[in-house]
């Protein structure tokens, strides 16, 4: 029967993509449905921290152990998504050194290497750290690019036969008595309804999993906890910086590619608001105030943008901050829990443990399908990480050096799929992030890019200091060119891209950010004559 | 150094003011950091395209008359509608004398065509650029849109899509030459100014003409992005003669060739009139005595101050750093004069990029003669002109160039009449 699969996975975050890959590798016919683009939820809205687990060592031993195990696995299987920076947990005079001893002990117990450093040595190692520090512990933290990680999982899932379909929103379930046998979904691009059938449906919707379960009449009491972050315009620190104290607001500064990130705040938000996160001036002020304690130079560093994610925590008590709730993985077999056959939910956890979550969920899927296949995702490298950087360098000799470097850092070994036959393909669309025409074309062709925001997630177009000042226009031009009939769509797309960027810039729009915004307004509204047509018609 | 007037800022407002003063025989200096909003000029000058409520304006002068009750701080209201009307009639002459021929009527907006094919109401458009009396009334039915291969700052497909709605059919043509390959060797070089340099060479202009005739086929006219004539002024005319069919330019994304050319032409005109233009210099501090500016000190001239009877602040808004935004206030960095803004940052913007944003109307506080204040006290010989003024929305109201030009003329006349 058409549209029939072994398993349907709802949600295209890291977890869903991980489940799709795991299933595909075990020979299970999988379909992943995502209502928007991949990595649009909490996956793409966090620190991008490759946790060593140290942060949880004192409060949550189990999470800490999971983290360090996955940390070591990701370094192997997702080398091109990971930066092995290491991290420092610094103690400031106001923190004292008492916590440090407890912390180091707990790290070691969880199997996390924790080296106590002399303050002077720590400052030499990380000149950006607050010079007032009185102690520091070095741990194997790092940085991970969640967009790349998820995209690689999707690529590999596809390569092994999974279908990944974006912009398809599950509206409700198809039942046979007490068994879910499929989903009815709406395609946001073709504007058509479609029905898909499978023996098992996996709810991997993150915080949205609450609503997905509700459509099956199942209550999962999730606690939406909003976490706001700021991105700085250049790479301030080379080691991840943490405060060595009980986890609190804004006490992690993570370097990643060309930028640094500070976060997060933590506040409970109503479930109804999770699609409309707004960063308040108070949150920005708090992040800056606390961030400056980790690295005083943040006070003078340009902020690129502010954003917030919603943690998919499963509520266990009335903690208003959502911080003492375990980050532990929650796997629910709704047959046992709620008497609904053919439906499971995988939630809780964190980006760091996405692979393990996928493994647990896929194990359960296998049991339900009567399949006996071992999980191989801890050993098989993801596409892009199969070969060394040196080999990738060799294969991409024809690319000019900046394009080569950027392409390899973003696509790893797959960089050689980016066309570099002539100078036009090597021309840059985005100067801040060094994205070539060839890379944009590759992303449009192979990485299921449907609009400019998707493109940004795959290539970093518009993520740099200018925040899409001119490159957005150029990329829109390329997309419009590909399908001239859709030139109108490309223009509308440009409008929504600019709106999306502005949402992240408005909370921090002073100084150079306001300058850039004024310039962008002039270029797009005045020179190009773009306006938000959709809004205008409703205003009149 | 002693001058009659020192103008700080060498953009459209600063130069228009300097030229008018110099034409009247005054000894003027312009101190310019270099980059101005002309860098992203569209090749047109807007006077007033929309009222603050969004209503489209056909007759800019009539539109100005409606500003007083709804936008009392608007520079046009300060200057007075009648005077604005007079100045608007004088601007084309000033531009023509500087070697910037323009077409347009301050009593009736026409339409310029953007790099994305949109029709925008405007006042004056430079010769050679495509314009329409009504949005859909283009001077052709079949047009060939030519672009340089790999040039990403111009959008033939978008333009064609807009033209289709007017019943105009477009065909595309692309050009590529060995000399263009050379600039492609450095992949960030495919920008308008670099391409224009390639076409400054006669042999490339000739090759372009040949290629245009090839691709134009049965088209009635040809459209090119503004990538002609950066170091020579006759490139467009030369090409038009070679092609021998109607040829129009459209603006591109920055850098704007028409903007760069206008900047050069105004600068040359100011110098020809005896003005002193200090490029790449910036004013660092000022001495004030008895509510008057006595002298200013610049980065390049150290302890050699610029003295003058009057000073004009034409440093622009945020882009040109005439205004600086900190998280809780708006500062004018040269004199620290009083600025108009709302202290609560959350009121500076909405979350929709294309909305009218309150910050766009922030600027320096003026009296009726556009003189500036410091800590509430009037500075008697310091005037403000251009984008740094408060009370208007240059983009949404389509009045940025007009405010710059008209406020410059007004300030110049006030200075001329004050002695």
Describe the structure using short key phrases.
heterodimer; A: 540 residues; alpha+beta; nine-stranded mixed beta sheet; eight-stranded mixed beta sheet; 22 strands; 38% helix; disordered C terminus; B: 419 residues; alpha/beta; FAD/NAD(P)-binding domain; Rossmann fold; 2 domains; four-stranded parallel beta sheet; 12 helices; 30% helix; 24% strand
Describe this structure in words.
The complex is a heterodimer of chains A (540) and B (419). Chain A has 540 residues and is α+β, with helices and mostly antiparallel strands. Helices cover 38% and strands 22% of the residues of chain A. In chain A, the strands form 4 sheets. In chain A, strands 5, 6, 7, 13, 14, 15, 16, 17 and 18 form a 9-stranded mixed β-sheet that branches. In chain A, strands 1, 2, 9, 10, 11, 12, 19 and 20 form an 8-stranded mixed β-sheet that branches. Chain A has a 3-stranded antiparallel β-sheet with strand order 3-8-4. The N and C termini of chain A lie far apart (49 Å). Mean pLDDT of chain A is 91; it is low at 317-322 and 536-540. In chain B, the strands form 6 sheets. In chain B, strands 1, 2, 13, 14, 15, 16, 21 and 22 form an 8-stranded mixed β-sheet that branches. Chain B folds into 2 domains: 2-106 and 260-418, FAD/NAD(P)-binding domain (3-Layer(bba) Sandwich), CATH 3.50.50; 130-250, 3-Layer(aba) Sandwich (Rossmann fold). Chain B is an alpha/beta fold. The radius of gyration of chain B is 22 Å and the shape is globular. Helices cover 30% and strands 24% of the residues of chain B. Chain B contains 12 helices and 22 strands. Chain B has helices spanning 12-23, 60-65, 67-70, 75-79, 81-97, 156-164, 178-184, 192-199, 202-216, 235-243, 257-272, 400-417; strands spanning 2-8, 28-32, 44-45, 102-104, 110-113, 119-122, 124-126, 131-132, 142-148, 169-175, 221-225, 247-250, 276-279, 283-289, 292-298, 306-313, 324-325, 330-331, 339-340, 363-364, 371-374, 377-384. The interface between A and B is large, with 56 and 58 residues.
